Amino acid sequence: MRILRDDKYKSILKAARTEFVQKGFKDASMRAIAKNANVGLSNIYNYFRNKDEIFLEVVSPARDDLFAFVKEKHTEKYIDFNYMSTIDYQEETVDVYIQLLVKYKEEIRLLLFHSQGSTMENFRETLTEYLTHVSDNHKSIVKMHYPQMQEVSSFFTHTLCAFMVSTVGEIVTHDMDRQKIRDFFKEYFRFQIAGWRELTGI
Q: Model's pTM, two decimal places?
C-alpha cells in the first residue's frame, strides 16, 4: 500500500468524510466514496487497506485533539479552585471547548453515535474511561498539595465523566451556536467548581 498525500488521497478523504457523515460508518459505501472522489474503486486500495482505515484517518484528528485537551486540563497547573473560578480561566477553557466542538462537530458525532462496525465503535466508553483515568490521577495530584482533601470515589468521578461525554454528544447533535455553547459551559463550570469544593473540602 502506498502512503501518499497527493490530490487523489485528499479527494478520497473528502469524499469519505461526506459519505460517513451522511450514512455513518456501517452504511457508508466504498463504491460511493470512489465515485465521489472521481477515482476507480481499486485505486482506493493503493491508499487505504479498507473502509475502517479511511474512517480512522477521517476521525483521528478529532480524537487526538480531544484527548490532548483533556490531558492538558488535568495537569498540576489546574489544582487551584480559586484560579479555576476566575473569569479568565473559564473563558480560556470555554474558548478551547468551542473551537474543538465547532471544528470537529461531525467527526465527534460520528465517533459517539455512528461508528458501529469500525474499530472505533466503543469510543464513548473509551473516552469515558480516559476521562475517569486522568481525573483520578488529577485527584492524586491535588491530594499531594492539599493533604486535607476529602476522598471522592472513583465511581462518582466515573459518573461525572460519563455525564460530560453525554453532554458533548448533546452539543454536537443539536443546533447550538457558539454563544449557546459558551452560556452552557459557564453554567457548568459554576456548578462543577462549587460541587468539587463541597466534596473535597478545599
A: 0.86
